Amino acid sequence: xxxxxxxxxxxxxxxxxxxxxxxxxxxxxxxxxxxxxxxxxxxxxxxxxxxxxxxxxxxxxxxxxxxxxxxxxxxxxxxxxxxxxxxxxxxxxxxxxxxxxxxxxxxxxxxxxxxxxxxxxxxxxxxxxxxxxxxxxxxxxxxxxxxxxxxxxxxxxxxxxxxxxxxxxxxxxxxxxxxxxxxxxxxxxxxxxxxxxxxxxxxxxxxxxxxxxxxxxxxxxxxxxxxxxxxxxxxxxxxxxxxxxxxxxxxxxxxxxxxxxxxxxxxxxxxxxxxxxxxxxxxxxxxxxxxxxxxxxxxxxxxxxxxxxxxxxxxxxxxxxxxxxxxxxxxxxxxxxxxxxxxxxxxxxxxxxxxxxxxxxxxxxxxxxxxxxxxxxxxxxxxxxxxxxxxxxxxxxxxxxxxx
Length: 404
Hints:
The protein is 49% helix and 14% strand.
């Protein structure tokens, strides 16, 4: 009944958890069982393989099922959630259904009834049979699925993400998959050039009934934004725009028209950074290496396992652009059949005296994670402590020690 399904179980009660895992695995499912809210968020948001459904207790030792669902929903479209609740938590369960949860069951429950409810909420992943283009991770597959969906309609699209994530290629793919594919795809690059209203007018004349692609729409000046909002009302063509991750700040500061932003935001695709898609960094490295190899006379056989680990562990602040630059450099300096970590990351080739102690390395890692947690929670220490699974007092002490 559940053969091939990957389920995440978030349940702190050992007796119930063991019982559910045993029965679900007997039905053919693969189960990831975690016992804390913070681990549940990670298991659903960045899983090792796509999640078909989540079984989540509402009451957890470090939070609640509602907090798990909210945290996951802020970054991805959540898989179906089946909540397990006590009698006194039914109001909360009903509220979660209104927020987008799939179903809930009240303890105690019969196993056949539980399995029946679970089967009912399981959904078919529409992206499962699509060829990987953005990547192989669940987040990347979601981007590809959204691209396919928006290609089927004519409304404006906003693609958001940091630089180096292939937003321009994604826009071109949406155009190529749409009914306008035989019409022009005209690019206005506000990231590279100052775009005047004349530039926009010329592009609009050229695009006819094709697609007008505005790269870096947040860089348009006031007149350009005025012209674009007019174009949205009258266009026989389609508009696809890209921007960075902080355009809301520009809207709040009065530097970007709110009506234009919300008109574009109605159909939004967010491309997550490679730091959140480690398996995609490895996949992309292999894809790029194949393309770069084809242009060389002396080809390497591939990326060594040690280099793969280094790629997976790197944060990739420059995303795909950084990855390509490092591969080009590695191919220039490689002396063997395989690429090794120091070919890709020459900074690893340091003197022994530069090696950190384990204590120093731990401080660096903790500092990085604390900064990430504080950024994600807008500086809320209590919420950051919850994400890091430490007490608020412990987090304060570490922040003081690390001068944060």
